[in-house]
Each structure stands twice: as C-alpha cells, then as structure tokens.
C-alpha cells in the first residue's frame, strides 16, 4: 500500500524515529466489561476533555454519551439482546474459522494481576454469566490506531503523526480544522471539536463550558503523554475488571487468541476477534477487540478499508488513460497533416 496507506510492517519501526520501540496497543475483552464507564471518566479527566451535552440517559439505552467523538475518546456501548439474537450470534460464530483469546493476567509493570495494588485476580472466574434468555453486551470503544491509518494518510498539514509507539496522534497546534481526516477514518472516530452549537450530541442541548482547541480534530492519543513517561493509558489503569488491557501489540493479539480459545471451550461460539487480522483493509488495528456478536451490533464496520488503499491503482489507471489520450491526439494531429 506504500506511503499513501501506511507502512507495510510494524508502524512503530517504520515511523522514522532514530530508536526502536515496541508497538503498543489495547486488547478490549468485552465479555468481562460491566459497563461502569470508569474508562470514560478517566479518559476525560486525564485529557481535560469537555462534556458532551447534558449527559441525560439516551432513549435507546442506558448510554449517556452516544458515540465516540471529539470530546469522548472512550465510549461504552450498551446493547440489549434477547434469546433469538443470542442464538443468531452463536450460530454466526460457529461458521467462523477459530480465531482465538486470554484470561485475566498481570498488567504490564504490575507485580500482581488485578486492578488495584496488592489485589490478585489471577484466579478470578472470567466466564460470562450464563443468561440464555437475555443479556447486555457492553463494549468500551476507542480509536483503532490502524496500521494503515486513513486519517494520517489524508491530513494535508502534517498535524497527524505516527509516534514511536506506533500510535496516531493529532497535534492541535498544527491542525487547521479542514476535516479531511474525518472523512478518511473508516471507523468514524476522529471528529472536529465545536462548542455544541453546530451538532449537539443527540440534540440534548448545549452546555456552557470552556472548550479547548475548538475547531480542530480530536481523538484518542493512547495517552501518548503517559507512554513517554512509562505509564499505561488512564482508561486501562482504571478498568476494574481488566476488560481493557494494555501492552505490546503482539502480546495483546496473542492474549486475545488465548482468550477466544478459552471462551470457545466454554461453549461461547459467538466470541470472535476484531482488528487482529493484518490482512484486513486497514492492516490490522492497534486496538484489538473480543466481540460476542457481529461487528455491526457494536457499531463497527464489518470490513473497514483505508480510503487511500486504491489510490496507486487509480493513479496507474489514470496514467494509462492519459497516455491513450495523448497517443490518440498525436495520431489525429499527424493524420490531419497528410
């Protein structure tokens, strides 16, 4: 895919830095997410992100933020399902090739597994409750930090850059607010920030507040300022169930496959991975997810494609067409002189 769609291999090694770093990423295990939204709160507090609307509960679910956006870099979705949909999810899962995922293990740099100092969750039961008649699917969504990042490819100012950890970050002081990156993201993650007067979330009204970096594009940075200090992202550090795991990308993918295998052994055939396939339309993602239903149920595209993927082919086709037109013009000119 070349320069237009990102590096072919590890983006961290290809970012142009003078030293090597392992690619970092998330593994979000939705099967043990309890929907507490601690990750949303931690993300907003650490990054000083403005409030989205008046935070009233939405009519469609118990959610009060709605979706990812310029002000909400972590979003926990609530999906209610009945018996029929659960059976459909398990049937579609049986048709998939075995994908593979992990049990609760130690955090990077932590002496014992768990969410709080001194708390060991290595023997905790991570099997989701058996509720064949009804269940809630809860999932903490975030920027995917794609291997081939469409937002990065199309940015005309260089405001988006690839960090030494393989993540994609916006520099607000360089961003001119053109919005090209918004259309370039196949996941609809990145968004321009306004004060709520342009498009208030869910038409729930405007909140009087200071809005930093108004008019610029904003999204998750994977807490880049924390990574450079050797700290894990705020959301992963806060998650009480370790549903959000952080570490080296390869380790996260390996853990994801182990966890999938574990759930399949428990009979949960609906469990599947999202973003772990390096052959997909974005070259795999830095944020890998374990899902319990089709991606569309969680608001994720089933086959994301970086928009610049076909540009080389388009350029070649245009060049051939241009060459043909020039040849036809030359022949017509020469034929007219006879």
TrEMBL record:
Signal peptide: none
Pfam families, A to Z: Fer4_11
Gene3D superfamilies: 3.30.70.20
Ranges for region Disordered: 1-21, 98-130
Binding site for [4Fe-4S] cluster 4: 155, 175, 178, 181
Residue positions binding [4Fe-4S] cluster 2: 43, 220, 223, 235
Protein's name according to its UniProt entry: Ferredoxin
TM segment ranges: 314-334
Binding site for [4Fe-4S] cluster 1: 33, 36, 39, 239
Domain 4Fe-4S ferredoxin-type: 24-53, 134-165, 166-195
One GO molecular-function entry: metal ion binding
GO cellular component, one term: cell envelope
